[in-house]
């Protein structure tokens, strides 16, 4: 996942540079032709982003703009955010569209076990209980 994160960081840096060096005062990374509006067709800018990434040695041959959207959905889901929230952010009109991200959602049971175990460990002063061994008391001779 290191290379993927490097690519994301490079993309964020590139998009920030594009926005900061833009002649438009709109604040949009890709300003549209209409004043104060973003561009609505990202095909040409995406080609430009890929060209810059390739110049920086990042292989984006098989990376499509929708892959970024899908990756965002997967990362939000794996981060434990509710599918209803993710769907709202992504503009999905139908819950079944967002449901395809459910396979990467953390198991609620596993999250409950992790969270509760961490709380117990904290209550024990940071010690993790050794559940694999039964506690035995040594007998000492009087």
Task: Walk me through this protein's architecture.
53% of the residues lie in helices and 0% in strands. With 142 residues, the protein is mainly alpha-helical. The protein folds into two domains: 1-10 and 20-63, no CATH class; 64-128, no CATH class. It is elongated, with a radius of gyration of 24 Å. The N and C termini lie far apart (61 Å). Residues 135-142 have low confidence and may be disordered.
How does the helix and strand content classify structurally?
mainly alpha
What is the number of strand segments? 0
Question: N-to-C SSE series?
Answer: HHHHHH
Shape category: elongated
% residues in beta strands: under 5%
Kindly state the mean pLDDT as a whole number? 78
Distance between the termini: 61 Å
Q: Give the helix proportion (percent range).
A: 40-55%
- Per DSSP, the total helix count is 6
Global Rg? 24 Å
Task: Describe the main β-sheet briefly.
Answer: none
Poorly predicted regions are 135-142
In short:
It contains six helices and no strands. It is mainly alpha-helical and 142 residues long. The chain starts with a helix and ends in a 19-residue tail after the last helix.
SSE blueprint and pairings:
Blueprint: H1 2-20, H2 43-55, H3 65-78, H4 83-90, H5 95-99, H6 108-123
Write out key terms for the chains shown:
2 domains; 53% helix; disordered C terminus; single chain; mainly alpha; elongated; 142 residues; 6 helices
């Amino acid at each position: 996942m290191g290379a993927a994160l490097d690519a994301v960081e490079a993309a964020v840096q590139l998009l920030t540079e594009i926005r900061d060096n833009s002649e438009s005062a709109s604040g949009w990374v890709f300003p549209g032709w209409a004043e104060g509006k973003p561009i609505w067709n990202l095909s040409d800018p995406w080609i430009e982003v890929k060209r810059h990434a390739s110049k920086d040695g990042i292989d984006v041959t098989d990376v499509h703009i929708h892959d970024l959207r899908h990756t965002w959905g997967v990362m939000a889901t794996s981060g434990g955010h509710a599918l209803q929230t993710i769907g709202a952010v992504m503009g999905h009109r139908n819950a079944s569209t967002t449901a395809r991200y459910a396979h990467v959602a953390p198991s609620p049971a596993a999250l409950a076990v992790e969270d509760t175990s961490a709380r117990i460990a904290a209550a024990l002063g940071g010690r993790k209980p050794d559940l694999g061994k039964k506690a035995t008391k040594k007998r000492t001779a009087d």
